[in-house]
Design a protein that fits this description.
alpha/beta; Carbamate kinase; 15 helices; single chain; 469 residues
Length: 469
């Protein structure tokens, strides 16, 4: 379908009746001139409330479950009452109650079992998106737009990795073409849930970090959309975190590769998995602010039209851990230790943020998120149980007092002295560099520093590279 626009709204953009009206108005405005499909997140904080309810269920806290179920019901029924009236309100309330009843059933089942099966968790936490999709679709209908809610589990087909599923694009494309294209051709607007899908045999799944954005990119690729607009609560992708660097500016345009590197290294940009389906189809993406829609935002494209030199942005992460391994015996092959360590990280489903090694001592270190540390250490201890027990490998060393600084830009390729300028700027702030990693693509320089010096290093590099307003 030519000129199809897919629009995605995050939790803050769906956080209240007022925000839902704004999101709906943005959809309706574009719907007047071209076909539109939307993807929505749960209302802000609702997913946290759902997960908290399930934790209380697992712990056997019936009163805690009941209290949170009531909070969930009150928030959505109040929002419905603020949005709608008359027959539209009368029609939506039973639908909301039906969805809430499904969550109630799952939560009480976990309360009886005293555990949270991953498959049931995936089914339960998609309830937030289902509720918000029904609300915005009902509001659009009340304003004369033929919108309808779509549960993504009926469209997005995934593998069976519960909690972090990946799409099966061929099967997803078939379902999207069968279910959504006829509706779009008839002038209807589908409002699909973000974050969730289902296996071929119908078992509910979720898509992990950045799941709602990922849902939108999957839908855009499956329907061969002309554009994808991601609506958030910021004016676009910035040259640095404005809380750390007041002079940070909104980037007009960046490449898929730059956006992926920024996201991977902590920036609130589209997750790298989100970009993958779009890159194959060369579908441009706009990052826009639903609180300030007049601002153009940032465009993400395969290649930029300018000839930038140097980096485009600097980002950072503080909740990281530096894990170091070192053979204690020369007979232990360092390359094999590294290979087995990376395999252990993959088993723990952890993302490797940076990796450095030394040639003589065969020691190496890698950076991961602190949230992934327990699973990684567990897998490493299992993988090297024999070597650790007999002293062939020094005890695994974990340093939590570190932060990651990443400088990103296609324009850094082949620029002599760029790394030296960056290191000098950091050293002027008396910040010690612990580890450095740079790939042969030269798009990113990743630097590990002490956490206390991280913010100073970000500001120093941002200023040195002239990235501010």
């Amino acid at each position: 379908m030519s000129n199809l626009l897919v629009m995605k709204f995050g939790g803050t953009s769906m956080g209240s009746a007022e925000r839902i009206r704004t999101a709906a108005s943005l959809c309706a405005e574009q719907y007047r001139v071209r076909p539109v499909a939307a993807v929505v997140s749960a209302m802000s904080k609702v997913t946290d409330l759902l997960l908290e309810t399930l934790r209380h269920a697992e712990a056997g806290d019936a009163a805690g479950v009941e209290q949170r179920l009531e909070l969930l019901r009150q928030r959505h029924e109040t929002t419905a009452g603020d949005l709608l009236s008359g027959e539209f309100l009368a029609r939506i309330l039973p639908k909301l109650e039906e969805i809430l009843g499904e969550f109630d059933r799952i939560a009480r089942g976990m309360l009886m079992l005293g555990e949270r099966p991953p498959r049931s968790v995936d089914e339960a936490i998609a309830v937030g998106e289902r509720l918000s999709s029904e609300l915005i679709a009902a509001w659009l209908r009340s304003q004369g737009t033929d919108a309808f809610a779509v549960n993504a589990r009926d469209i997005i087909v995934t593998d069976s990795v519960f909690g972090n599923a990946s799409p099966l694009m061929d099967q997803t494309r078939e379902r999207a073409n069968a279910v959504l294209k006829p509706a779009l051709a008839a002038g209807r607007m589908p409002i699909m849930t973000g974050f969730n899908g289902a296996t071929l045999d119908g078992r509910a799944t979720t898509l992990g970090r950045g799941g709602s954005d990922f849902s939108a990119s999957i839908l855009a690729a499956a329907l061969d959309a002309a554009e994808l607009w991601i609506w958030t609560d910021v004016d676009g992708i910035m040259s640095a975190d404005p809380r750390l660097v007041p002079s940070a500016k909104v980037l007009t345009e960046i490449t898929y590769r730059e956006a992926a590197e920024l996201a991977y290294n902590g920036a609130k940009v589209l997750h790298p998995r989100t970009l993958a389906p779009l890159m194959e189809k060369c579908i441009p993406v706009w990052s826009k602010n639903s609180f300030n829609p007049a601002v153009p935002g940032t465009r993400i494209v395969p290649e930029t039209g300018d000839n930038r030199s140097g980096p485009c942005a600097v980002t950072s992460m503080s909740n990281v851990a530096l894990v170091s391994l070192e053979p204690a015996n020369a007979a232990l092959n360092g390359a094999k230790v590294m290979a087995r360590s990376i395999e252990a990280m993959a088993t723990a489903n952890a993302e490797l943020l940076a990796l450095t090694s030394s040639s003589y001592r065969q020691n190496f270190c890698f950076l991961i998120r602190q949230s992934e540390l327990p699973a990684v250490v567990e897998q490493l201890e299992q993988a090297f149980a024999l070597e650790l027990a007999h002293g062939y490998l020094h005890p695994i060393d974990v340093d939590l007092d570190v932060g990651l600084l990443a400088i990103v830009g296609e324009g850094m390729r082949g620029i002599a002295g760029m790394a030296g300028r960056i290191f000098t700027a950091i050293s002027r702030e008396t910040v010690n560099i612990i580890a450095i990693a740079q790939g042969s693509s030269e798009i990113t320089i990743a630097i590990v520093v002490r956490r206390a010096g991280l913010e100073k290093a970000v500001r120093a590099v941002h200023e040195e590279c002239g990235l501010g307003r």
